Amino acid sequence: MLRPIETFIRKSAEKQEQRTKEISQSKYFSSTMMGPQLGIGSALSKRCHLRGADPSKLIYHKEEATEMGGYFICNGLERLCRLLILQKRNYPMSLVRKVFRARGDGYSDKAVVMRCVREDQSGVTVKLYYLQNGSARLGFWIGGREFLLPVGIVLKALIDTNDHEIYVSLTCCYKERYQREKGAVGTQLIGERAQIILDEVRNLSLFTRSDCLKHIGEYFKPAIDGFEAESYTAVADAVLRDYIFVHLTSNHDKFNLLIFMLQKLYALVDQTAAPDNGDVLQNQEVLLPGHLISIYLKEKVVEWLRRSRRLLAEEMAKSKDFSIKDPEQVKKFLARSSVSIGRSIESMLKVGRLATASSLDLPQKEGVTIQAERLNYLRFISHFCAVHRGAAFAKMRTTVVRKLMPESWGFLCPVHTPDGEPCGLLNHMTSTCCITSYFNTEGKVKDFRDIQRSIQNVLIRLGMSPLLPKLEHAGPPEVLQVLLDGRLVGSIACTEVEKAVAHIRSLKLSASSRIPDDLEVGYVPLSLGGAYPGLYLFTSPSRFLRPVRNISHTTDQNIELIGPFEQAFMEIRCADGSDGGRRSFPATHEEIHPTGILSVVANLTPWSDHNQSPRNMYQCQMAKQTMGFSSQAIRFRTDVKAYHLQTPQSPIVRTASYNKYCVDEFPTGTNAIVAVLAYSGYDMEDAMILNKSSVDRGLCRGHIYQTESIDLAERQEKSSKKVFARSNDKSMSSSIDSDGLPYIGQMVKPKEPLYSTYDDLTSDVKSTLLKGSEPVIVDNVTVIGTASKNCMQKVNIRTRRIRNPIIGDKFSSRHGQKGVCSQLWPDIDMPFSAVTGMRPDLIINPHAFPSRMTIGMLLESIAAKAGSLHGKFIDATPFASSVDKKDGKERSERSSLVDELGPMLASHGFNYHGSEVLYSGFYGTEMTCEIFIGPVYYQRLRHMVSDKFQVRSTGTVDPITRQPVGGRKRGGGIRFGEMERDSVLAHGAAYLLHDRLHSCSDYHIAEVCSFCGSLLTATVIQQQKRIVQEIPGVPQTRTPKNFTCHACKTKKGMETVAMPYVFRYLAAELAAMNIRMELKLSNRAGC
Amino acid sequence: MDQRRSVSDLFNPLRPESNRNPPLYPSLIPKTLISLPKRGQNPSGAQKPPAMETTVSYQRFPKVRIREMKDEYCKFELRETDASMANALRRVMIAEVPTVAIDLVEIEVNSSVLNDEFIAHRLGLIPLTSDNAMRMRFSRDCDSCDGDGQCEFCSVEFHLNVCCDSDQTLDVTSADLRSAEASVIPVDLAVKALAMESSSTSYEAAEQRGIIIVKLRRGQELRLRAIARKGIGKDHAKWSPAATVTFMYEPDIHINEDLMETLSLDEKRAWIESSPTKVFDLDPNTGQVVVVDPEAYTYDDEVIKKAEAMGKPGLVEINAKEDSFIFTVESTGAIKASQLVLNAIDVLRQKLDAVRLQDAEENDFSELKAHLG
């Protein structure tokens, strides 16, 4: 009876389909960084065999037809990397933080911080601290320790230069005539500070570049390993190369950048420029999965290389015939030591922990991967859009980081964030937001050098004076510095810059130019004490991007991709074309559609613009906990737990995104006829009445699929071997097949055998019983790995539980209106319409509306009614009216939605406002008012009573305290805690309190000696056989046990006292600490 | 169809059984007003129960007038009775008239995409012709069997055996259900058979292959045995013979003609338009507002509100007649709509008989009466 075995083993083979939002980069490292001889786990570097498959091929391989990939499969679980917020790379950010003072004496709270990232995505953060004496220190971390270098030494060590040149470069941003103009950043103090910096170096008696290099080398030699035999200069070169401005290769570039950072630092100190905010999206980017893996891989490869080198050195010292020059011999030697790089990456994906000593310049080491739950489609896709601020911020007391910042407009959804603990830290990207990639549209690695070169050429053509042939030094407000990916490439006259920016933007749009369309043109204009001015260009990957319309271009191709850095300085008007309340709006760009600021899930709420905003947030939460159509390939999947709605429907009222994202493939609810009325009181406080007959006909019916994986090889001891088998016992054959596995389609009740195994050592057959309190139906049995061994050892049993709606199940509309089913009433008891004879499927209380103001739900009801009468779907895209208004002509017609929907109802003889006269189902009389009734899309949430109810009269108790245990699974009770006790006390319900806390808990009768007052000294006296004369007719009484006090050696003072057992336990615990507890007994009450 | 039944009897269940002297029930001809005896003038010389004479009698003699009658649809008037009686009739029609529906499914092979319970549920919801349901036994009451389909009194066995061996998707429909009894078949097949009989020409429904149960692709198979049993809609909606049963109170519309004449033609037209349903119209000749279809009125008060908004309160007065109901009955096809009404009356009578018998046995009739007032 075994079903065709589907060895559907999905090992951790990486799915490589590229999404726009996350890029897996295995191709990158397989080709450039690791040869196959390194023995990286093949499952990881191998590309997915389903890459580029069309839907029919995907279905053939028992996958979802709309499968998008982008996740890793580890032990059958789908895991993906968390998108973490990082500091924007290659941009010097000025910060004011109190912690900077703790670096040492004389440190101020001001610094310029730059996260420098190499082309291989590994990064080193460099901080330039301001000292109170006017100097600065360059700080960076090596192996868990921060090193601080006087900036003058670094300047001198980088290039052959002289004091004069450094002085001139530093002070170029200050000229006396600048002070009269807007946007000057330098002050005359800068000259003195330059002097201090140079004096510092001179005081150390370092004059030439080689002096400085030697000084650095001496300082760092013990800190970096692998340079034991090298000269100081070589060590210093390595430090400058590997830790200072690692994104740049030339020392000249590094020198120029350091000068720029110093100027920015001094502008911050002198308050001619405002500090940057590290908590806004403007200065942030995102950690991509491919980048994470390549950083981790690099770390692991370096680790392995170091170890191998050490081993080789040891081997060379030990044995004479080992020659390093013979590659065969080296290979053979290295093959002996295990290579665990592939495995460590696999385990990193599995556990989400980075097992490294250094921090890798990442904000957190744990939780870098998460499981993508397929509770329903919306939850699944939300995982891929979720951007986390970082685990460290979750523990922070301040709420500043959780704030919704205006800078994230259009990039992060203001609605879609959970409430509670991760609120504001876990955000979701908007539906239009995307992230720049390492790959171009053809899937090839971008040539960043080439792109930078062409941008530089364009800039020079536009009037930028390049840096290298040093002509003259000037600074803002005369000229603006131009930084391209963190490299100072030149300066451009302030009068020219706006024209240049506009030109670059136009080049971004044209496909023929060599300027990429994802270039970020961050033009920070001159201001009085605002952000430090400059022209910052970014081509790097992992930046946020979103499309807006460039209105200076009238051609078709006017959709420009902009980033959060440039957005802060751009003039973008809303899609309705209004001026945003400003008198003159020099708009250069325009939003494409207002819904672009919402995430995919938030976009699905119909008419969310008519709802109170927290309700839309609740809906985003609840949409993700809805029991829906989780997967079309559910038959072939082995999810540990999957919720499945039997009869889902497509909503009548839907937004444009609903069609765009094909949510119809995975619907999440039912169109229920909802009547809003207070009927019998069973709909109070968000309870709702369901029509039992509708449930009988299939409303909201569902299943829970659960897969249990049984691996006998894991459990067995070494000597014995277990196989699946059935005993010859006839009683078992009713539920278990001859192979020891259950019949498919068989219903198994709790504590009935699910499968049975045979142990060849003890040669007995043991059956395993079904856990839980619900009957299950065996849905599928999959035998795994029959080819490798001659007997089956591993099996997946998928069971199915029927979950039809019952009292206590949770439902919700799409407007944050959740409720619990309080009654299942038959059709005849529901109110009915005299005209149509219709009975509602669901009754909710009108009190759900006034305080929550979910007008969208009322509109949905009217619209769905009109739509069902006309036989068409109704578009409920939020903010649709603001786009229409631009056309002008529709403005007068469409004054309100109701005026559009009302006539549709009236044309079919229904009330204009969606209400109907209903008659009581009990009495047949007309109800006193008209009832608002119409179809509303209802979602069934996954919270069901069957998983939650907890009942106990008596049962297991804790062995120490003899109080009832807690926990639903163990059949425990619900804690009657302090607050409950207080409230019962306040009511004066002493008897109830005594009953709850004593009689029903750890009631105990103790023997106490009234002489010594001890609870613990009572001992039982052996009963002597006493002849008791039996009196006929009188029931024989059990003679009470006799106790005696062990201390007083008498039984005269023994008394029985009722007390909680914990009290005796307390006495025993105290006795163990040599504290005697003495009880004083008295017969008087209340003493 | 048993039509030999006294109408007065039907609605007068409190009358003693022994005293029934049934006048022939006129056949159910549409548009026939059956005149019923007025209160207290029982033509059959009824002996009222002694209890009734001392107190106020609630006995009434309702009238039924049939408006329209098709197999699956029926509309009739019920006059001279209370809302309680009308609602009781509605409730019984929906929930307590027995039909036959598939209740037990034994699945032998199911390799379709739908799981066993889903298919069983779908099978249960297929309406079956249940003309004999009133005569059948509930399987829980059946002495001759335990409801396993072996017994002709309480159950009907169905078999379904379909296997798809073509590349085209195969629809498994109600037509694939093989019934053991010719009188109990899926409703759509019965309708089709009837249509084929009446006109040999191609009938629209003949194109359809019945109610789809599941779709099979190549190699999938469905083999099962199903047992249909008698049941009532109270237990499960699948046994409910009624798709829609509703009644409305007959409206009594009085137009204040004098006030109406003060309106201009346009105002009248606007007032008429204010009702979403076509209740009033303008007489093209006289220009007067006339009531064209009082029953189209849905008690939505739109016209009254409109009149008030026009500054003419009292323009029209609409009251619901307390004792006049217009019933609309739509059947699922399991039994004919007319039969559904008759069966409902039967069931209602049985229920009341049961109450009465119980009273007689337990001798606490007085208590009940005191309770009723």
UniProtKB/TrEMBL annotation, chain A:
EC number annotated for this UniProt entry: 2.7.7.6
Class of this enzyme: transferase
DNA-directed RNA polymerase subunit 2 hybrid-binding domain mapped to chain residues: 601-970
Keyword Transcription found: yes
Pfam family, one: RNA_pol_Rpb2_6
Single annotated GO MF: zinc ion binding
Catalysed reactions, semicolon-separated: RNA(n) + a ribonucleoside 5'-triphosphate = RNA(n+1) + diphosphate
PROSITE patterns assigned to the protein according to its UniProt record, in alphabetical order: RNA_POL_BETA
Keywords: DNA-directed RNA polymerase, Metal-binding, Nucleotidyltransferase, Nucleus, Transcription, Transferase, Zinc, Zinc-finger
All copies of domain RNA polymerase beta subunit protrusion, residue ranges: 45-326
Record domain DNA-directed RNA polymerase I subunit RPA2: where: 489-546
GO biological process: DNA-templated transcription; megagametogenesis
Compartment(s) where it occurs, according to its Swiss-Prot or TrEMBL record: Nucleus
Gene Ontology cellular component annotations, sorted alphabetically: DNA-directed RNA polymerase complex; nucleus
InterPro entries: DNA-dir_RNA_pol_su2 (IPR015712), DNA-dir_RNAP_su2_dom (IPR007120), DNA-dir_RNAP_su2_hyb_sf (IPR037033), RNA_pol_bsu_CS (IPR007121), RNA_pol_bsu_protrusion (IPR007644), RNA_pol_Rpb2_2 (IPR007642), RNA_pol_Rpb2_2_sf (IPR037034), RNA_pol_Rpb2_3 (IPR007645)
Annotated ranges, domain RNA polymerase Rpb2: 114-286, 372-434, 972-1080
General function of this protein: DNA-dependent RNA polymerase catalyzes the transcription of DNA into RNA using the four ribonucleoside triphosphates as substrates.
Recorded family membership: Belongs to the RNA polymerase beta chain family.
Protein name in UniProt: DNA-directed RNA polymerase subunit beta
TrEMBL record, chain B:
UniProt record, GO biological process: transcription by RNA polymerase II
Entry's Gene Ontology cellular component terms: RNA polymerase II, core complex; RNA polymerase IV complex; RNA polymerase V complex
Alphabetical list of PROSITE patterns matching this protein: RNA_POL_D_30KD
Keyword terms: Acetylation, DNA-directed RNA polymerase, Nucleus, Transcription
Start and end residues of each DNA-directed RNA polymerase RpoA/D/Rpb3-type domain: 73-358
Transcription listed as a keyword: yes
Residue segments, region Disordered: 1-26
Family: Belongs to the archaeal Rpo3/eukaryotic RPB3 RNA polymerase subunit family.
Name of the protein: DNA-directed RNA polymerase RpoA/D/Rpb3-type domain-containing protein
Species whose genome carries this gene: Asparagus officinalis (Garden asparagus)
